[in-house]
Design brief:
- There is one protein chain.
- This protein has 508 residues and is an alpha/beta fold.
- It has three domains: 266 residues, P-loop containing nucleotide triphosphate hydrolases (Rossmann fold), CATH 3.40.50; 158 residues, Orthogonal Bundle (Helix Hairpins); 53 residues.
- It is built from 13 helices and 14 strands.
- It is rod-shaped and about 185 Å long.
Length: 508
């Protein structure tokens, strides 16, 4: 990224102030209180905004210090910068109530969206804290801020590989774990459904078996009952046949003869003895009653009447009907039991759903292990890059005097003095400034690999002697595409002239 122009419409002491910058080294020269720090703050604020603190802290915060001297409600500006061969314009309103920012691609005439992350993409994902801990060094802030260690640790956990491919191992691992948990949950739910289905099948099997047993018992009882009925009927028929085999077929001769004789006697008496019919009615009635009684008694003693036989046959048919119904139901239940047992046998084996979930979960576990291993290896290399690059830069700055050392996880630094390691408290202040400068530049290369941001240096070399200043300017000219250096002295300008390094001067 290269800043081409800033326009401070109303910011601090500046109103409608337009400043142009060039690639390479830019020297912003001015006396104290000329507005160098205000411009330095604007260059950061235009990209990242200027938050306002609350309470008593708001009285001395950056937002308050840079409020426009005239018309404070009109608090805004813009910047024109080049990125990827295209020009972009960023306009920002710093007013605490609106804080609007608008981004335009000047080359294409396209309006872009800050809210949707277009500016973050152009900045390579760099945050204000990262910028302040790497390429933007304010007055008396050569030492890294507390957030650098966290930023580096976060980067090492979520880093970029070579090229445009973004690798975020922690996010990838999180997604893999989430997916694994989903498949494990799917397997668990499938097993639970399988167990529920198994219990339901076992219950149906037990119930069907009970029904089959009851039907078989009913069929057995029915068979025995029909056998008993048949045997009883045969016995009765045999017994009745023994008593009077022809009784059921013989005509009732005795009552008929008695009745016939009574009518004959009555007729004889009427004709020859002149006896009244009234006197003869009694024996006739007696004979008729005797005949009827005989018939009734005979009917009661018949071996098998037609009605009884019909009742027996109907009863037997009903029993046979029930037996047939039970037999059909038994056949159906036995078929159902067979099918249920086959279904249970199939269910006992893991079904396709469980096997698929288990396979996917195991595959994701393997992927997690492989990714964690690869991430650890790459993180180690990236961590080594920060250390190695710091010593490379320091070697150039110190002309080979310090080329290695130790940097622990808390960024405690010890220099290799040849025969022993020495702490920063054992070296000069100028060397300390060089060490932290090297660490910042190395961290910037690590954390801002997607986009090289302009280097902002506000009186950074005040503690440098001429030799150290010479080496620092040479390194910046060699390794950085744009440097904006703020100074109240002409030391940097004179050194650039001496070294023959071109620069662009802005006077405030």
């Amino acid at each position: 990224m290269t800043i081409k122009e800033v326009y401070m419409k109303n910011f601090g002491k500046f109103q409608k102030k337009r400043i142009s910058f060039q690639p390479g080294i830019n020297i912003v020269y001015g006396e104290n209180e000329s507005g160098k720090t205000t411009l330095y703050t604007f260059l950061q604020g235009i990209f990242f905004g200027i938050p306002r603190k609350r309470g008593t802290a708001s009285k001395t915060d950056t937002y308050t210090r840079c409020l426009p001297w005239e018309n404070p409600s009109w608090y805004e500006g813009s910047v024109l910068f080049e990125e990827g061969g295209k020009d972009f314009r960023l306009e920002r309103n710093f007013d605490s109530r609106s804080r609007e920012a608008e981004l335009y691609c000047v080359t294409d005439g396209e309006k872009m969206s800050v809210e949707e992350g277009d500016l973050d993409i152009l900045l390579g994902g760099a945050t204000q804290r990262i910028y302040e801990n790497t390429a933007a060094i304010g007055q008396q802030k050569s030492r890294t801020q507390e957030g650098l260690r966290e930023d580096v640790e976060e980067y090492l956990a979520n880093f970029q590989t070579e090229g445009d491919f973004l690798l975020d191992p922690q996010a990838a691992l999180s997604r893999l774990k989430e997916q694994r948990k989903e498949w494990e949950k799917a397997e668990k739910e499938a097993k639970e459904r399988k167990e529920r289905n198994r219990e339901a099948l076992l219950g149906r099997i037990r119930y069907t078996r009970d029904e089959i047993r009851e039907l078989r018992e009913k069929l057995e009882e029915s068979r025995e009952s029909l056998s008993d009925i048949a045997q009883t009927g045969e016995k009765e028929i045999k017994q009745e046949g023994k008593q009077d085999p022809k009784a059921s077929e013989s005509f009732p001769m005795f009552p008929a003869l008695v009745l016939l004789m009574a009518f004959a006697a009555a007729g004889f008496c009427v004709l020859f003895l002149d006896i009244s019919w009234m006197l003869l009615a009694l024996p006739l009635l007696l004979g008729a009653a005797l005949f009827l009684w005989y018939l009734r008694d005979r009917r009661g003693k018949e071996p098998r009447s037609s009605r009884e036989e019909q009742e027996r046959v109907m009863k037997e048919e009903r029993r046979r009907g029930r037996r047939m119904s039970w037999q059909e139901s038994l056949n159906d239940k036995e078929t159902l039991l067979y099918n249920l047992q086959e279904e249970l046998e199939e269910l006992e084996n893991d079904n396709e759903e469980i096997l698929k979930a288990r396979k996917e979960a195991r595959s994701l576990v393997l992927a997690e292990k492989m990714l964690a291993k690869a991430a650890g290896s790459l993180q180690s290399r990236r961590g080594n890059f920060l250390k190695d690059r710091t010593w490379e830069i320091l070697e150039e700055l110190t002309q080979g005097r310090y080329r290695s050392g130790l940097i622990d996880e808390n960024f405690q630094i010890r220099l290799d003095g040849g025969d022993r390691y020495v702490g920063l408290y054992q070296v000069s202040q100028g060397t300390v400034e060089q060490v932290y400068f090297a660490l910042r530049m190395a961290a910037g290369e690590l954390l801002c690999r997607e986009e090289e941001l302009p280097v902002l240096l506000d009186e950074t070399f005040a503690m440098y002697d001429d030799r150290r200043l010479c080496q620092a300017l040479r390194w910046l000219q060699k390794h950085k595409s744009q440097v904006i250096l703020f100074t109240c002295t002409r030391r940097e300008i004179q050194m650039l002239q001496k070294l023959g390094i071109p620069w662009n001067q802005i006077s405030l």
